[in-house]
Specification:
The structure is a single chain. The chain is an alpha/beta fold. The protein has nine helices and twelve strands. The strands form three sheets. Strands 3, 4, 5, 6, 7, 10, 11 and 12 form an eight-stranded mixed beta sheet that branches. Helix 1 crosses helix 4.
Length: about 300
């Protein structure tokens, strides 16, 4: 059994399509098919079944996939550890984060870190809350920004880095757009533009509306903060978004209004596997994050004290 066969098998299993897997691997489709066939012959089992134009894992294929993913993750980790042993400043950090942090927070943090560690590489993976937890447990990422922060989990641990306020966003022509603050129940008759199921901001907004005494009427759903912001600015409804998602300017911009009752926030944390030590370079980055966000808390506190 060759290592290449495992790489090809895992890629085909994830894509459920030989051609798409071959394109991502930058090899010929025939080469992928040949390696999968040889792997099946060596194991003496069928790993895939044809389902239309796609491939579907057999029950034994699912079993083999779990083991293959662990083997490849351990191998990747071993290669990283060797590189770090030779020079920790040239290691690689596999970092996961939700889509809502990819607009400004992640670029800012990574840029600040690389000022002091310019040779450290990053491999990024965006995902929803469940997929980030799953990828962390499987060993496919080293650290992950996550929201909401998991209070208790058998396999992951970490620290809350910051708590961020969510604002109501309204069409510019909305009667409440000029207010300095509102109560959330003032939007009870509005159509809401929310994130799709599975995105962590959706239950935060939903629960805040419930606390305010109403169930939000959903008109549109999206998967990116830019989409939510744009639809609201175009008059398609109202929503709630975290402050960092409202920094960017464009042709269409919604009105931003503070919500006093209830006060809506989300916490953002950094997690890693609880049963495994961080690599040297990931440990350096983790320490940097704790210092970076602690400094930001002090800066925000000083700014608020001067303004009060």
């Amino acid at each position: 059994m060759e290592l290449r066969q495992l790489y090809y098998f895992v890629k085909v299993a994830r894509k459920e399509h030989v051609t798409q897997a071959a394109e991502e691997l930058h090899v010929a489709q025939s080469a992928v098919s040949r390696q999968i066939h040889q792997l099946e012959e060596e194991l003496g089992v069928k790993l895939f079944l044809q389902k239309g134009r796609n491939l579907q894992l057999t029950p034994v294929g699912h079993l083999f996939l779990k083991r293959a993913e662990v083997i490849l993750a351990d191998l990747d980790r071993a290669v990283v550890e060797i590189h770090e042993f030779l020079d920790p400043e040239k290691g690689e950090i596999r970092l996961g984060f939700p889509h809502s942090l990819g607009v400004s927070l992640i670029p800012q943090v990574v840029a600040a870190f690389r000022k002091h560690h310019p040779n450290v590489k990053f491999r990024f993976r965006q995902g929803m809350y469940p997929s980030l937890i799953r990828d962390m447990v499987k060993g496919e990422i080293d650290l992950a920004f996550i929201s909401p922060f998991p209070d208790e989990h058998e396999h992951v641990c970490g620290q809350v880095l910051l708590t961020e306020e969510l604002y109501a966003i309204l069409p510019p022509s909305h009667p409440l757009a000029g207010e300095s603050s509102i109560q959330l129940n003032q939007l009870k008759d509005e159509t809401f533009v929310l994130f799709s199921e599975g995105y962590s901001l959706r239950p935060i907004v939903w629960e805040a509306c419930q606390e305010a005494g109403f169930t939000p009427k959903i008109g549109f759903e999206g998967e990116e903060t830019e989409t939510i912001r744009g639809l609201v600015a175009a008059g398609m409804g109202v929503s709630l978004l975290p402050e960092m998602a409202l920094h960017h300017t464009g042709i269409l911009q919604p009105a931003k209004v503070r919500v006093d009752q209830p006060h809506v926030t989300r916490n953002i944390g950094i997690i890693h596997r609880s049963n495994e030590k961080l690599s040297l370079v990931a440990k350096v980055f983790h320490g940097f994050l704790l210092h970076y966000f602690n400094e930001k808390k002090h800066e925000d506190y000083s700014k608020n004290s001067k303004n009060s």
